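Before relying on records like the one below, remember that each one covers exactly one chain. Contacts with other chains, cofactors or solvent are not represented anywhere in the record.
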Amino acid sequence: MTPLQRRLLVPLYVHPAVDPHPWKVLERAAGRLYGVVLNLADGPGRRPDVVFAGAAARLRAAGAPLLGYVDTAYGHRRTAPVLADIGRYRRWYGVNGVFLDRVPSAAAHLARYQRQVRVARTLGARTVVLNPGTHPDPGYAALGDLLITFEGRWETHRHTPVPGWTAGYPPERFCHLVYAVPVGRGDQVADSARRRGAAVHCAVPGDGANPWQSAPDGLE
């Protein structure tokens, strides 16, 4: 399966010691995944976690691309700790990509993120995902490999408009992350994302402060 046929980007924000089930589900579905976003403690944590590393290694061996979650605080976090987190994920958990979260939408921060993406690639990130969670200034679409242009609830996703500038890019450059999805509606999310120009998606039933604790709908 080629990278463009891997349509699921899965944020997995639960420790395997707390709930190993979604980790095992994603191992079995590794061939369908654009990537799995690993998030130990809003980042890689202060020291290596042996249990977490073992679960990551099993995902990697199954063929799932791994991305390390890095909080950028909407452009207010200094570049040095951002890059330090990227390096720790590479050394401790063998990720081959990075997921830059809480990216701003304003053009004023473009130069900062351009530098961060460039250095991330020198540190070994083959895939760079930026997550503003909404449609940002069009300049962000040119920075990484994938841009998250929606992160939110199922009810909102179905009614969110799409700006015209997205038509200038292939759908494989965009992703929608949707939570609070009713069971059995994962395919509808995929169809809705495609109609809105996003080829990559994730649909999970979780809700609340951390909805990303389960495998996507339909993988069970």
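Strands lie at 8-12, 33-38, 66-71, 97-101, 127-131, 146-153, 174-179, 200-203.
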